[in-house]
């Protein structure tokens, strides 16, 4: 164990005062390290070196001492903030821990490899060097040797990289051999991504194998470099017949963005380093007041650039809230300042006549422009001639005739530019100061703003573009290099596009050019990828015949786009919005949608399983005579046969008519048979290919039966609810032995992976083991969480998972019998557990309709899969681990793509939730709130312009509304409180209590004075001029839970405002909002319960949506029984809204559609008159993933509606009549197009056409049809 002094040093490293701030102290410390090498302190545990030979014999000890001194002297990090991290990429944002503590834990453990991930600029290299320094400071002779390896510096690090690094440190061959035999190393491998590696260094270097290097490896990599599946690149692998990665030898951590406190700590260390124009408080004020800047500087490298740029940014007279700063602007400013400083340095230096003359010539030509051009050309050369490796070695006699001499040769101009550029040099090795700087210059080689008249990088951009835009260079990198796998370069270019519309025009021209020029396919794929990533919308776009093979269109919006005849081979269409798009006669070979079709059964799906060979998939559905077992082909997901019908079940087994349900299913190891357990207590063995029953194995009891095949395939274990468990012979059908135990109901049975034990989960909270050969009872574990309702073994048998009520899943160490990590994701019953085949993940299904994926190592939540609408009853991983199937009570089997982080089915919910939307004279305002409830923001979706986020002190937000003038926001939450914010200043008003229960909806009165809040059993009106004045309106029954309150304000055209309130008591009540007095009560009749209501524009008529799928029209003045009802809705009418002219009506339904209704043009009746009127449904909008909750019309311009739905998305739709969008409307056909949508985030193929498409996989054809694509040509 580490000593107390060691622990104190760890504490200092994690959060104490960093010695880097005190430079004299640093020097004294380094001097002490040089003179007192045998330090008595131990930061990290000693890893004993058995049989260590005296290294002094070969001089290795002295060389190690020299290496320690040199490495400590080379460490230069004046500012260091201990980073926080989370367990995995998918772990929750709030589950952070100190990274240094996690590394300490790794070094204390038996794990061999720790992967540290982080975004570009997150501080991976900084942390690695700091870790190396701490290890060297506390290194003693018998400790593990810290060895920092910058992977790009090593040629072929996949082969003997330790030897190569030690040779670079001037160790002899004898010393290296001796250390290999007797010493242990802590490898700190930095820059896996920069070295362009794809191999597993632990495997290729044969680390920890017999007679090989004994090590622990810490390796860092940029998150963007890796795909969704990367475990095999890093996890140790056993060099025997078991080739799967050992997850218990691997650990990972993801560096988290800085918190606001860490940003402040960084600034506090940064300010004293040299004279600054501001103090810490000034920098923090600027960071907090400039919109979105604080979020950006949570990246440490961007924070550094920002602090250097801020004084120059704020020199203008702009209001801080009007300043816009992007990442690429920070790089622009940093590079300009870097070159300016170096130009002044050269001017002030003592130069020869020739040097002075050359410098003045360069200044005359434009020193900064020359410097930028130099770095652009170097970046291009690195990618094109050096395979992207950022480290370039230049030895003059070896490289003077190569491309390297153009950048590192002795020529005077080259030397000046090299020494003035943001490069670093270590001996003969050169590189940019940061990997992102290389990518920045490469992106600038594609589009350089200086060639488009942009001189002030922080000046407000008009974004109008120039009239005459020159095309991009056809010999440039956009045309010659595939950028799809360079996300950082794509991000820089996206930011350029948002700043300069010329670039967007150039990219669109490239896409258009691909229609006629086959040589532009690579450029077009790059161009449209950049456009989509930057948020460019392609609604209704003419993209016929474009050639964009391999493009990444994931998340793109292509509503009604024309893509006929396009080359879309290998295109990524994950989460794309393709509603009514035309893909006829397109080339779709290799296209990716990120998900698979779901399987829809006739009844609830009780159980499911993959065959061990991965070729078949079975489902058990329904109960009684409606129950069947279906077998599917995994390659096509076509149903192969129906193995069993419940009707035959009665013929086989019983003479009465009792319904019998199949409870569980399991495949034999050879995939030829499967076994089922039924609630009549019978176990049946089936032939999978023929669907023929082979054996009946009947027990003594009836009840739920769980089954499991032994690994040898010759036995089956079954457990009946009522205490009976048996092992059966699959050859004879006879009982081998019974496991009699009456301590409680048996919930689950499993075989251990090696077949030696049978384990039972019981309702008394025990987990009981039996010898699988003899039937003797073994260990009994007591589960702390009670009933063990489901069990699962890890593939290697070293862990067992037990599921319990309350959503708890307990992991157990099977060797010690001790409980380990507890997995918690919900409070519902855990219905199923399944380990992934590599043992790294565990999936859990539950009663709350959600499937959750956890990391086995640390219990971190990896992902949540939403899609089921009822309880999930069973789970199954495919044998290759790429798919996870979940069986639901909603009659659906969903197939989740766990391999792909881009899979729409497994897509993570968006951070922002659409709370409200408002049409304004200038366009639109969207109110969205973070899923975590930490803040809300108001913004324009078409321009992207937003107002500062409104921070929330507590996570109680549940509903929100924008005031009619767009100046205020009112929020309500689950605690029944209201709070209003000023959107201009961000100032919050008081929190007002009074609603008494969670607030489901909020409405403003047209004048903005009153706010109405509703919940299922209450409506309350609030006077914003006197917030303390609040009163409940409506005479709702106390405790009447089966209720639904809906309310609406009358329009401004009425002499006095009225509030209409109704609920499932079918009373319509009109109130005065000023007094709360009841003005009128109308009985709506017995036939339908009201769900929603809306006033007509003149206030005379009320449209009421009902739960019997209709809309009723009431004249509240005459109280006439409605003479017209709009029928034909596919579900409850959850929201209704009139257009401002009164001639249009929109209704949102529980069937996830919106219907657009139009008043008859022939009758010309005044709206709201007592005459007979007629409405017709002119179109139905589809493409909503969940129910539609709200609709409003644009009162200012085009005929538009905005919808919000429970899928967290806000959509804006434009309605055209014969091509006209006038708000009055004319005769003719009606079409509707999406204008914009937020948080769409899932694949939409409603109305998509793809007849004649070439190369489309049959599985994806089925997927598109499920998503609403047309089955045949029009």
TrEMBL record:
Residues 113-271 form the NACHT domain. The keyword Repeat applies. WD repeats lie at residues 655-696, 739-780, 781-822, 823-864, 865-906, 1092-1124, 1126-1167. Residues 23-32 have a biased composition (Basic and acidic residues). The keyword Cell membrane does not apply. Keywords: Repeat, WD repeat. Residues 1-32 are annotated as: Disordered. Pfam families: NACHT, Pentapeptide, WD40. This is NACHT domain-containing protein.
């Amino acid at each position: 164990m580490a000593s107390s002094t060691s622990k104190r040093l760890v504490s200092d490293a994690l959060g104490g005062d960093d010695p880097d701030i005190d430079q004299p102290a640093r020097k004294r410390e380094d001097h002490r390290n040089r003179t007192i090498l045998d330090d008595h302190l131990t930061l990290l545990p000693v890893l004993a070196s058995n049989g260590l030979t005296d290294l002094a014999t070969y001089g290795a000890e002295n060389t190690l001492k020299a290496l320690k001194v040199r490495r400590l002297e080379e460490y230069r990090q004046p500012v260091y903030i201990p980073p926080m991290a989370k367990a995995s990429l998918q772990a929750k944002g709030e589950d952070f821990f100190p990274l240094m503590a996690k590394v300490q834990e790794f070094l204390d453990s038996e794990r061999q490899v720790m992967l540290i991930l982080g975004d570009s600029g997150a501080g991976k290299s900084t942390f690695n060097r700091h870790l190396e320094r701490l290890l060297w400071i506390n290194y003693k002779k018998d400790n593990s040797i810290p060895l920092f390896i910058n992977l790009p510096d090593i040629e072929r690090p996949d082969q003997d990289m330790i030897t190569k690094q030690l040779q670079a440190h001037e160790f002899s061959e004898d010393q290296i051999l001796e250390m290999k035999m007797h010493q242990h190393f802590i490898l700190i491998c930095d820059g896996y991504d920069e070295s362009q590696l794809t191999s597993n260094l632990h495997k290729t270097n044969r680390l920890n194998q017999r007679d090989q290097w004994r090590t622990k490896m810490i390796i860092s990599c940029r998150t963007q470099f890796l795909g969704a599946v990367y475990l095999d690149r890093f996890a140790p692998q056993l060099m025997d017949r078991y080739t799967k990665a050992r997850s218990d030898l691997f650990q990972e951590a993801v560096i988290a963005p800085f918190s606001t406190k860490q940003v402040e700590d960084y600034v506090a260390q940064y300010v004293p380093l040299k004279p600054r124009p501001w103090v810490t408080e000034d920098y923090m004020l600027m960071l907090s007041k400039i919109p979105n800047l604080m979020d950006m500087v949570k990246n440490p490298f961007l924070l550094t650039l920002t602090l250097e740029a801020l004084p120059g940014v704020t020199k203008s007279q702009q209001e801080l809230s009007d300043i816009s700063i992007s990442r690429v602007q920070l790089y622009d400013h940093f590079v300009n300042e870097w070159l300016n400083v170096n130009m002044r340095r050269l001017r002030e230096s003592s130069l020869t006549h020739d040097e002075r003359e050359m410098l003045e010539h360069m200044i005359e030509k434009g020193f900064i422009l020359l410097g930028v051009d130099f770095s652009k050309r170097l970046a291009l050369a690195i990618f094109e001639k050096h395979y992207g490796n950022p480290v370039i070695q230049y030895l003059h006699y070896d490289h003077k005739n190569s491309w390297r001499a153009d950048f590192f040769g002795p020529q005077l101009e080259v030397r000046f530019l090299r020494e003035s550029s943001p490069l670093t040099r270590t001996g003969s090795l050169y590189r940019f100061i940061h990997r992102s700087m290389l990518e920045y210059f490469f992106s600038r080689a594609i589009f350089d703003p200086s060639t488009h008249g942009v001189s002030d990088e922080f000046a407000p951009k008009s974004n109008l573009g120039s009239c005459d835009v020159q095309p991009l260079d056809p010999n440039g990198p956009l045309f010659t290099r595939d950028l799809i796998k360079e996300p950082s370069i794509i991000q820089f270019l996206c930011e350029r596009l948002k700043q300069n519309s010329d670039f967007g025009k150039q990219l669109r021209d490239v896409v258009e050019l691909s229609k006629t020029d086959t040589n532009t396919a690579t450029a077009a794929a790059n161009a449209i990828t950049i456009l989509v990533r930057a948020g460019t919308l392609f609604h209704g776009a003419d993209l016929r015949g474009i050639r964009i093979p391999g493009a990444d269109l994931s998340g793109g919006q292509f509503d009604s786009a024309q893509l006929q005849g396009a080359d879309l081979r290998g295109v990524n269409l994950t989460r794309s919005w393709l509603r009514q798009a035309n893909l006829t006669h397109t080339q779709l070979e290799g296209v990716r949608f990120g998900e698979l079709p779901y399987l829809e059964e006739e009844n609830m799906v009780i159980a499911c399983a993959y065959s061990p060979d991965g070729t078949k998939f079975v489902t058990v559905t329904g109960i009684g005579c409606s129950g069947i077992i279906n077998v599917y082909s995994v390659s096509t997901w076509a149903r192969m046969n129906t193995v069993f019908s419940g009707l035959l079940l009665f013929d086989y087994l019983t003479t009465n008519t009792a319904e019998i349900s199949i409870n569980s299913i399991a495949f034999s190891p050879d995939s030829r048979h499967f076994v089922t357990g039924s609630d009549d207590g019978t176990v049946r063995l089936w032939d999978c290919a023929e669907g023929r029953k082979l054996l009946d194995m009947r027990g003594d009891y009836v009840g739920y039966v769980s089954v499991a095949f032994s690994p040898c395939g010759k036995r089956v274990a079954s457990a009946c609810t009522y205490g009976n468990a048996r092992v059966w012979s699959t050859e004879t059908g006879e009982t081998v032995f019974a496991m009699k135990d009456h301590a409680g109901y048996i919930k689950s049975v499993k075989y251990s992976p090696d077949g030696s034990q049978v384990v039972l989960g019981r309702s008394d909270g025990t987990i009981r083991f039996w010898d699988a050969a003899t039937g003797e009872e073994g260990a009994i574990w007591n589960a702390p969480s009670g009933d063990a309702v489901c069990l699962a073994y890890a593939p290697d048998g070293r862990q067992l998972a037990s599921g319990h009520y309350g959503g708890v899943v307990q992991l157990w160490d099977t060797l010690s019998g001790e409980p380990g990590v507890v997995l918690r994701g919900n409070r519902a019953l855990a219905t199923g557990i399944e380990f992934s085949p590599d043992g790294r993940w565990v999936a859990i299904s539950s009663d709350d309709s959600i499937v959750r994926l956890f990391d086995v190592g640390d219990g971190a939540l990896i992902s949540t899969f939403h899609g089921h609408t009822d309880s999930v009853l069973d789970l199954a991983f495919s044998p290759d681990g790429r798919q996870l199937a979940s069986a639901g009570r909603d009659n659906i089997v969903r197939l989740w793509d766990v391999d792909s982080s881009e899979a729409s089915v497994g897509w993570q919910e968006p951070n922002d939730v659409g709370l409200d939307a408002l049409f304004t004279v200038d366009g639109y305002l969207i109110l969205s709130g973070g899923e975590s409830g930490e803040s809300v923001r108001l913004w324009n979706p078409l321009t992207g312009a937003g107002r500062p986020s409104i921070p929330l002190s507590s996570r109680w937000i549940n509903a929100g509304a924008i005031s009619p003038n767009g100046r205020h926001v009112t929020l309500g939450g689950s605690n029944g409180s209201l709070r209003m914010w000023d959107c201009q200043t961000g100032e919050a008003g008081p929190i007002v209590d009074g609603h008494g229960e969670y607030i489901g909806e909020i409405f403003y009165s047209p004048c903005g004075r009153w706010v109405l809040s509703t919940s299922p059993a209450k409506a309350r009106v609030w006077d914003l001029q006197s917030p303390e004045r609040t009163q409940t309106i409506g005479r709702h029954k106390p405790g009447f839970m089966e209720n639904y309150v809906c309310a609406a304000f009358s329009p401004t055209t009425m002499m006095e405002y009225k509030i209409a309130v109704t609920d499932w008591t079918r009373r319509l009540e009109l109130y005065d909002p000023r007094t709360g007095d009841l003005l009128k009560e109308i009985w709506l009749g017995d036939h339908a319960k009201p769900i929603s209501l809306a006033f007509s524009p003149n206030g005379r008529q009320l449209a009421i949506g009902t739960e019997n799928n209709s809309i009723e029209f009431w004249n509240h003045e005459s109280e006439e029984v409605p003479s017209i009802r709009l029928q034909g809705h596919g579900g409850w009418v959850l929201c209704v809204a009139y257009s401002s002219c009164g001639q249009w009506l929109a209704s949102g339904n529980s069937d996830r559609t919106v219907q657009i209704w139009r008043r008859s043009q022939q009758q010309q009746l005044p709206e709201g008159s007592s005459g007979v009127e007629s409405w017709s449904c002119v179109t139905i909008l589809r493409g909503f993933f969940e129910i539609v909750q709200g609709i409003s019309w644009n009162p200012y311009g085009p005929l538009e509606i905005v919808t919000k739905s429970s899928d967290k998305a806000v959509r804006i739709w434009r309605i055209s009549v014969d091509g006209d969008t006038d708000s009055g409307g004319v005769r003719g056909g009606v079409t509707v197009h999406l204008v914009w949508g937020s948080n769409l985030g899932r694949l939409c193929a409603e109305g998509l056409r793809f007849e004649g498409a070439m190369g489309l996989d049959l599985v994806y054809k089925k997927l598109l049809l499920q998503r609403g694509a047309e089955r045949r040509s029009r």
